[in-house]
Amino acid sequence: MKFLLLFSLTFGGAFVTVPQTARQWRPAKYRGITVGKSKIADILRAWGKPKWSRTSRREGDEESQVTWTNYERVGEFPGPTTVVSDTRNGVITRINFYPDRLTKAQAIAHFGPDYITTRYAFDSCLDEEDSEPIYESPTGPLVSVEYRVRGIAISVGYKDMVTRISYVSGPIGSAKSRCAP
């Protein structure tokens, strides 16, 4: 009996899996598309011809060009959808849904209770013309309901209305400001 107890305590722990913490991001999966892995060709096969598609043109920075592909009525809620992909390799980097009228409470009822709420602030010292870098800040003005293990970030605005649902492959902002204090 003592042998079994000692054996289970010694070797049983080796097979126990530690659950993911709510703070860790995993790539989002949406209708067979994995953000960070699937390519724009996969979206075109699955969703058909987009309403429009454009490539950003940043002077002198060929490596960070992205293509914005826009669809109507492909999401779970009425509103436009934008698929962002890396222009060089076609890999999808983000899928943004812009619901017409969706409250934070309705979004939580749809996606479930396993979320965390994170506040963000703008990293104002960084001069990036095509993006607005953000970082986690307990007093930041931006509110995000996040299902990090599922790769979903829901931006919440005025009167708790959802402004964007993003399917991502990693963090939507940095853990701390990249600007000098």
Can you put this structure into words, describing what you see?
The protein is α+β, with helices and mostly antiparallel strands and about 180 residues long. It has one domain (about 20-170). The chain is about 15% helix and about 30% strand. The chain has three helices and eleven strands. It has helices at about 1-10, 40-45, 105-110, and strands at about 30, 35, 50-55, 65-70, 80-85, 90-95, 115-120, 135, 140-145, 150-155, 160-170. The chain has a nine-stranded antiparallel sheet. A two-stranded antiparallel ribbon has the order 1-2. The longest helix is centred in the first third of the chain and has 10 residues, at about 1-10. Mean pLDDT is about 85; it is low at about 1-20.
**Mind summarizing the main beta sheet?**
9 strands, antiparallel
State the share of residues found in helices, binned by percent: 10-25%
Oligomeric state of this protein:
single chain
Mean of residue pLDDT values? 85
User: N- to C-terminal separation?
Assistant: 61 Å
Please give the radius of gyration in angstroms: 20 Å
Pattern of helices and strands: HEEHEEEEHEEEEE
Question: Which structural class do you get from the secondary structure elements?
Answer: alpha+beta
The beta-strand count equals 11
Reading side by side through the largest sheet, how are the strands ordered? 3-4-5-6-11-10-9-7-8
Number of helices: 3
Q: Approximately how much beta-strand content do the residues carry?
A: 25-35%
Q: Which of globular, elongated, flat, extended, rod-shaped describes the shape? A: globular
Contiguous low-pLDDT stretches (5 residues minimum) are: 1-20
Number of domains: 1
